[in-house]
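Please fill in the sequence for the structure shown.

STRUCTURE ENCODING:
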């Protein structure tokens, strides 16, 4: 078999893992996998369909692939992922350049789908989005020194603004032994930073074991030789237990960085959005986390312009941010997604939501500047990632790849990507730290 298949992966890290698994299955079936989406017999576009911006990006990539197809640079086009799942009929009808679509419940059928598309047949497959996860190998698309470990699929949270449960199905945890085995294999292949992801990592194990098992999973991951950093993303605030806090505080391999998406703090908005917990809970949670996990860096995501948000509610959110000084904040303008309860509610104008999101970003820049200044004249461990001819680039424990900032530093020796070094922080520029390697 000589057909070559290229990939485009869009959206979140969980989507990236799905793409890596499809690449593995196709390679095992004898196809050549290309890192580029041109000069290929088939391009697979693994899409995100969460919000309008993601949908637009996916459509732009499909149109570009169609142009490449017309120019003879691409043979066939197969669209997979959340956009394919969400718009099952529209994609083939409105984007005639597409030769097939594969829903999120049919990722494991990618070999059959590729064979059919390449033979000239139109494919439209949508397996059950609630089906059990399968244990499949991966071709890593991240640098060799870090990788994502997806510990569950789907979501049981029914946030009023979110379409994910209808695209990804109910929450399904992988078995602990399967997660640990995959992490061991990644470590043997040179991965030093493991980033634990799921739609809701803090719920891990409830469906399979009847109780929250993230703390136990983390303890087992910490025993794997070769792993140096373990990072945890997507922990819902109401699911953070004392046991999880204790594990994070006690285990040196777990970086003191926690991603806790809260979306808003106003009680009425949280109620309308079907978010569990309330403002009083959040007011108590973050100080508790900081007390019990020294050096903790906190990340959250917010939605500006949610239904019910007036100026008073927005001011309440900004006041919360000023007082708690969360080091990492992503603010997004509300996107009314068709099929969700929130889309049927009254909400601020889109321009108002964008203005508010921009204001939060400006507010947050002061927090980032203050955090960076607190690191001046200290030595931080940095995971080296690249070199531009003048500076090495890397990340501290406070920086998740592709989301947060970087550290630029000089060194008197050659440093390979994936090497941990100690860096004296001397300053900051455009939100990034500047330093030099600390001489041993």
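FILLED IN BY: designer on duty
SEQUENCE:
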């Amino acid at each position: 078999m000589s057909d070559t298949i290229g990939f485009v992966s869009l959206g979140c890290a969980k989507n990236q893992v799905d793409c890596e698994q499809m690449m593995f299955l196709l390679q095992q079936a004898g196809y050549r996998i290309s890192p580029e989406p041109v000069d290929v017999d088939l391009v697979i576009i693994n899409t995100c369909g969460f919000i309008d911006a993601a949908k637009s990006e996916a459509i732009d990539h499909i149109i570009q692939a169609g142009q490449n197809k017309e120019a003879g640079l691409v043979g066939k086009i197969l669209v997979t992922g959340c956009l394919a799942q969400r718009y099952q009929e529209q994609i083939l009808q409105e984007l005639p350049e597409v030769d097939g679509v594969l829903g999120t419940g049919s990722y494991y059928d990618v070999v059959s789908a590729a064979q059919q598309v390449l033979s000239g047949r139109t494919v439209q497959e949508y397996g059950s989005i609630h089906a059990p996860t399968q244990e499949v190998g991966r071709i890593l698309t991240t640098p060799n020194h870090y990788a994502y470990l997806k510990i569950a699929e789907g979501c049981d949270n029914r946030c009023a603004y979110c379409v994910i449960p209808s695209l990804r199905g109910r929450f399904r945890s992988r078995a602990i032994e399967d997660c640990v085995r995959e992490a061991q294999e990644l470590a043997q292949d040179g991965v030093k930073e493991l980033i634990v992801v799921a739609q809701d990592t803090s719920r891990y194990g409830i469906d399979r074991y009847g109780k929250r098992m993230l703390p136990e999973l983390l303890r087992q991951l910490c025993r794997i030789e070769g792993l140096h950093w373990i990072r945890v993303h997507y922990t819902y605030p109401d699911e953070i237990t004392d046991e999880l806090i204790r594990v994070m505080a006690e285990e040196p391999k777990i970086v003191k960085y926690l991603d806790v998406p809260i979306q808003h703090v106003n009680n009425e908005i949280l109620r309308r959005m079907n978010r569990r917990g309330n403002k009083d809970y959040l007011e108590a949670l973050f100080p508790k986390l900081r007390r019990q996990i020294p050096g903790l860096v906190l990340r959250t995501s917010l939605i500006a312009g949610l239904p019910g948000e007036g100026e008073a509610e927005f001011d309440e959110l900004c006041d919360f941010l000023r007082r708690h000084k969360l080091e990492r904040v992503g603010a997004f303008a509300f996107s009314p997604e068709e099929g969700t309860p929130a889309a049927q509610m009254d909400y601020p104008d889109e321009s108002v939501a964008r203005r508010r999101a921009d204001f939060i970003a400006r507010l947050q820049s002061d927090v980032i500047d203050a955090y960076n200044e607190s690191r001046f004249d200290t030595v931080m461990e940095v995971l080296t990632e690249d070199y531009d001819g003048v500076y090495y680039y890397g990340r501290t424990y406070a920086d998740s790849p592709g989301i947060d900032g970087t550290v630029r530093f000089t060194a008197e020796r050659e440093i390979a990507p994936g090497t941990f070094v100690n860096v004296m922080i001397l300053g900051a520029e455009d939100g990034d730290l500047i330093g030099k390697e600390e001489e041993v």
